[in-house]
Amino acid sequence: MNEVLEIDEKTKSVNRLNLDDLSVEELKIYIENLKNEIHRVNEEIIKKNKVKSDAQKFFK
Hints:
This protein is mainly alpha-helical. The protein has one helix spanning 24-58; strands spanning 7-8, 13-14. The protein has one domain.
């Protein structure tokens, strides 16, 4: 996936790409990669919220 996405390891963010440099096919791949990453991040948020909720129940 990182062959299209440029990750700034220091800030843990995706760098903006110059889209002019990408073909239509590369842009489609880029969109698909972003969708996959959004899904992965949403799953991580759900997981962390569950851990937080479970911890709050434990300490009540």
